[in-house]
Amino acid sequence: MPKLLYARPPANAEEEWRTRKLAGSRHAPGDWTMRAKMIVASWDGERTSTIAAQLGCHMQTVREHLARFNAEGLDGLGDRTGAGRKRRITERQRGRLIALARANPPGGCTDGDLLALVPDGWPQRARTWPNARRQPRAEPRSSESTGNGGRRVLGQEWIE
Questions:
Q1: Cα–Cα distance for residue pair 158/131, rounded to 1 Å
Q2: Of the candidates 156, 7, 154, the residue with the CA atom closest to the CA atom of residue 70
């Protein structure tokens, strides 16, 4: 038998106003608005099965969020942290790693230097890079159609 659970009455007028405003918001995060709608519907006397049917979720989800609101108030509407694996590097380290990967290699190595390392006896296909076979277009056809599926490679348009 499912447990009948209702949201506790609002602690004050401001909590009720903020919850109702959040429930009707179009620009707040979707999970917050959905949970606020659960609370407001419960305040209006709806049962968990009716709330779940209106919002397209399971009754247990409604019960869990009502219980969290009863315990934590408006702060209980947000997502909890700690789900999933913790990051091994910080955002700053990640940014430095991405910048390092995008930078030119040390020593000024270029594609021509790399092609010089391929032996002459190898087939011609192995000596050419895929982008080296493409020719830059002299002039774009029009501003609407680039002719290459809308792709841009290194700021230049290329013919497939």
A1: 9
A2: 7
* One domain for residues 53 and 101: no
Give me the helices (H) in the chain, please: 13-23, 30-43, 48-55, 59-72, 91-102, 111-116, 124-127
Cut 0.70: pTM above it: no
List C-alpha distances in Å: 157 to 65, 132, 140, 147: 52, 13, 8, 9
Residue 60's pLDDT is what?
Answer: 92
Which amino acid is present at 18?
Answer: R
Domain of 111, in residue numbers: 91-132
Q: Is residue 142 part of a domain?
A: no
Domain of 30: which CATH number?
A: 1.10.10
**Does residue 137 fall inside a structural domain?**
no
Q: How confident is the model at residue 159 (pLDDT cuts 50, 70, 90)?
A: very low
Averaged pLDDT score across all residues of the chain: 77
Q: Are residues 40 and 17 located together in one domain of the fold?
A: yes
pLDDT at residue 76 greater than cutoff 60: yes
